[in-house]
């Protein structure tokens, strides 16, 4: 009977959280897609491009050079490539249309986040109900559901795995723990470079704290390195080669390009960041008068009850600081709390953009990071571990039925505070219907370019329409939208015909078919004959 209750809790939180996160999709029977005609259709394009590149022998692009910004090469390196979770999309694409495959990809990635977090919580000794709570927090808490609009941030399934094996490495060093920790970091990076980079940062902060708190931790690690040096270097060397091979296209595509500190300042977390959630969340208006406004990227609040539990965990750990090294659980809680505090403090903007990020960004790969607020990923990873482990200890040590009921009610309240937010959505024909009409007009062209605007509706990205039309027509296009633009191309802007021709002259010779986005029947072609190697 107890197992049935536990299974019911798992399913309730998994299916309930999935419904809350993707309610617009379910309630419209998949007629609407979350969330907007921007990053959503860009990420969808990248997944569909990889499917076509691998399984369509007549495809006009290659895996590393999608057919947009044509003839610029290696443009996949301008943004996330999503290769870590692309196999899931490919499997869905084999049985679904391209739009349904993407919607189910989002849903299944969220469910996988729940499964891995709950499984890791069980491995750490949490009872089933607390493990289900951990899975819900990692998959469906407000900060994560809000970021569904940046689909590359959805798959975080390898983060709990990496944290678990980092803890095993600190507790009992072994080649297996090291191998699995680094493997999980690589796989998470392959899913999303942002989350992978911040995960590695979090692990690099967590390990020294864990080793320092554990009696003899550094001495045992040194002895482990001395006795297993060859195998350790072999593991690190193999994964270093894997990281190098993965990032090589990015290095080649973005040589000489990095984010200046001033570009990061608007996206640094601050005091208001941590008490601001989405506009339709429960506490948005209540706390509004007591904080400054923040950018949409920095709405990181998940409700006060979770923060209260985090503070209670910190107070409980501090009061038991003299005996904390006697229990692995307490040691892990303390290490997670210290990691959380370090990451919050060192990435926060305190005064006129002054932040520890000025130094952290000098770490390898840090120059590519612009949205520093996405550090919420490792912060909530380690904060959640501290909270759920503390609850597990309290429930195990507490004999009072009333007190145990109170802890379960607190978890229920945290879950409730994650509700209320509904993400944006758009009708699929509003974009993909136009894609198909433009694709039909584009077929047979040497090179295409979608021009014009989208009328009074607004909100569309003409360049994204051109990219998708080219993909569907199997024709390269000069339109483009990504994390950056090629040299000489207007950043995130739609070029007029004369500007496009000037950009193409040093790079391309042939005919270009222009199509009016508002009326695909309105089309014309231009011959570009001037060509040199100035590009």
Please, could you describe this protein's structure?
With 535 residues, this protein is mainly alpha-helical. It has two domains: 2-26 and 105-417, no CATH class; 34-79 and 425-528, no CATH class. The protein is built from 22 helices and five strands. The strands form two sheets. A three-stranded mixed beta sheet has the order 3-4-5. Strands 1-2 form a two-stranded antiparallel sheet. The protein is globular, with a radius of gyration of 25 Å.
Summarize the structure.
The protein is mainly alpha-helical and 535 residues long.
**Strands, count:** 5
Task: Tell me which oligomeric state these chains represent.
Answer: single chain
Taken from the alpha-carbon principal axes, the silhouette is: globular
Can you tell me the number of structural domains? 2
Q: List SSEs in N-to-C order.
A: HHEHHHHHHHHHHHHHHHHHEHEHHEE
Summarize the biggest pleated sheet. Answer: 3 strands, mixed
* Proportion in helices: 55-70%
Number of helices: 22
Which regions have little confidence, pLDDT < 50, spanning 5+ residues? none
Task: Return the average pLDDT rounded to an integer.
Answer: 92
Class computed from helices, strands and strand pairing? mainly alpha
Q: Any idea what the radius of gyration is?
A: 25 Å
Spatial gap, N to C terminus: 71 Å
Q: Widest sheet: strand order?
A: 3-4-5
Percent in strands: under 5%
